[in-house]
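Dear colleagues,

For the upcoming journal club I promised to circulate an example of a predicted protein-ligand complex. I picked one with FE2/S2 (inorganic) cluster because it came up in last month's discussion. The inputs are reproduced below in full, followed by the predicted structure.
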Amino acid sequence: MERVVLKESAYNIKKGKILNIKQMTENEKLFEIALEGENLGHQPGQFVMVSVFGAGEAPISLSSSPTSDGSFELCVRAAGKVTNALHRLEAGAEVGIRGPFGKGFPVRTFEGNDLLIIACGLGLAPLRSLIRYVFDNRGDFGKVHILFGCRSPGNILFIDELKDWNKRTDISFECTVDQVDCARPDWIRYVGLITTLIPRVQIEPERTFAVVVGPPVVYKYVIKELLSRNIPERQILLSLERHMKCGLGKCGHCQIQGIYCCQDGPVFNYGEIKHLKEAF
Ligand SMILES: Cc1cc2nc3c(=O)[nH]c(=O)nc-3n(C[C@H](O)[C@H](O)[C@H](O)COP(=O)(O)OP(=O)(O)OC[C@H]3O[C@@H](n4cnc5c(N)ncnc54)[C@H](O)[C@@H]3O)c2cc1C
Ligand code: FES
């Protein structure tokens, strides 16, 4: 497994200024952040360590495409100490940024092939970076199918963008919720688990890369479905989440049976990690 080579600057905390904050759902906000005088220079699928002064640091995936210069976006769920402190900040506040870290999605390998992108819940945060990158370089990729699933209509992230994706004629997009809630009783799309959408997509397995990001419970069932559609194991990409402290392969917090999620991942192909029981 190839490990990311870190630059000297990976150890430095850079000052980031919050330019804009958008409330996305009850628990998730989108932060637009700019570094002082430099671009972040990330790849879709990579993450940064964000520090809120006085609260601590947390790993957060990049949600914006590297094709948008000047600032970057993070979609953050208020989960605990750091992320709640981040949610309490206002535009103009400063945060610390280390990174970008980790191996992202192998976009060069995807070129010329078809993509089946499957996002569940907050998994849309890193996949939005990939999706926007693909849209900005649309001619480099074959067919693009996007499937999104979440708990209920009230939990849908990036809803305005999803409406635009739905109108595009150069991709296919489908969305499902586990259940309808009172926030959107008028829901007219699918109700059911994400796995129910996969058989609806026409694919040529040998030229399809499936990219899946979601909570661990989803992987087991989605991978089974993708394998049954004959997509090769090495063409199934997933992003794993582990507790992280350093983000750069030193502390061991993110270790899964000898693999460092922060440096060997967080993006892996199924073939290289299927033997790791702890990964799922
Ligand atoms: C590579 C990577 C990418 C990630 N990308 C994203 C992303 O794009 N967006 C995002 O939102 N998250 C992302 N995460 C997850 C995020 O890093 C964690 O949610 C974050 O580290 C939590 O830090 P914290 O200090 O806010 O929570 P902590 O205080 O460390 O809490 C951790 C967990 O404990 C539980 N907990 C904490 N306080 C309480 C409480 N009072 N009651 C009950 N339970 C509690 C919560 O379930 C919480 O998830 C990513 C993680 C990794 C490893
Ligand atoms: S987070 Fe420290 S080794 Fe991965």
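Two points we might discuss: The pocket of flavin-adenine dinucleotide (ligand 1) is lined by residues 47, 56, 58-61, 75-77, 79-83, 122, 125, 241-242, 244, 266 (CB under 6 Å). The longest strand covers residues 14-23.

See you all on Thursday,
B. R.
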